């Protein structure tokens, strides 16, 4: 209920019981209850679908969590990249995603694709003693490396933290806000025109005029739009998770 469209609907609910109490008639409790019920239903659906979308994204990230071949207690084993700590010895080979920032040890030089991090279009050659970034992809070679940074302390983690700390609003939210503001401004202008026409010109009674304003106010607000968008995004998240997971399985 925390968006401009819902605020207008809440104002309409207050208007139904406050301003509509006139002309010898009681407050319009039916409209009030109907508006509040609609708001609660929309808010509940939005909350559930946004939660489902978040769960789908979290499940996808868990499925795609990188693994690493790590040397511990004298034995090589495949472990989740999340449990790596600085000082661990890992093995990097063709096709692997580098699980952490690391420094290469003895072995063949690697061809590393780090375009997602640095913007370099071609793979770069890394030899013993060179550092590699978490999130890079090994395109050629095989070598051992020692982990020097993990999590938010990696080059990728620091860049992600800068993105998370920004206060800029996303493009999708900007579009949604612009649509809401346009609807609100249009309805406000329409209500002003209707008030001028009904009372000073047509000299209508107080209560019928308020009823007309309520119809314009409620009918002109696309109250279900945020809910529809939430449902659409949730469905898209589920489909994306299924498609990416299927693609990952087929590549293995």
UniProtKB/TrEMBL annotation:
**GO CC term, one of those recorded:** membrane
Residues in P-type ATPase A domain copies: 64-163
Task: Name the Pfam families on file.
Answer: E1-E2_ATPase
Write the record's keywords in alphabetical order, separated by commas.
Membrane, Signal, Transmembrane, Transmembrane helix
GO molecular-function term, one example from the UniProt record: ATP binding
Identify the domain of life: Eukaryota
Q: Which InterPro entries match?
A: ATPase_P-type_domA, P_typ_ATPase
Regions crossing the membrane:
175-201, 213-235
* Secretion signal span: 1-20
PANTHER family, sorted: CALCIUM-TRANSPORTING ATPASE
The protein's name is P-type ATPase A domain-containing protein
């Amino acid at each position: 209920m925390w968006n401009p469209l819902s605020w207008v609907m809440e104002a309409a609910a207050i208007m139904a019981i406050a301003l509509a109490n006139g002309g010898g008639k009681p407050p319009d409790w039916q409209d009030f209850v109907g508006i509040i019920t609609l708001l609660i239903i929309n808010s509940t659906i939005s909350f559930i679908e946004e939660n489902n979308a978040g769960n789908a994204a979290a499940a996808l990230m868990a499925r795609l969590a990188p693994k690493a071949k790590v040397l511990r207690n004298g034995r090589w084993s495949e472990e989740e990249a999340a449990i790596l700590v600085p000082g661990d010895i890992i093995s990097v080979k063709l096709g692997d995603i580098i699980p952490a920032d690391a420094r290469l040890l003895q072995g063949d030089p690697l061809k590393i694709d780090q375009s997602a991090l640095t913007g370099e279009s071609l793979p770069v050659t890394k030899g013993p003693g060179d550092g590699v970034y978490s999130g890079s992809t090994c395109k050629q070679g095989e070598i051992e490396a020692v982990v020097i940074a993990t999590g938010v302390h990696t080059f990728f983690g620091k860049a992600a933290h800068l993105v998370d700390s920004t206060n800029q609003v996303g493009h999708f939210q900007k579009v949604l806000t612009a649509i809401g503001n346009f609807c609100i401004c249009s309805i406000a202008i329409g209500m002003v025109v209707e008030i001028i026409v009904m009372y000073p010109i047509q000299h209508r009674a107080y209560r019928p005029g308020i009823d007309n304003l309520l119809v314009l106010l409620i009918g002109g607000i696309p109250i279900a739009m945020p809910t529809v968008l939430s449902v659409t995004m949730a469905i898209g998240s589920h489909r994306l998770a299924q498609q990416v997971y299927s693609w990952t399985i087929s590549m293995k």
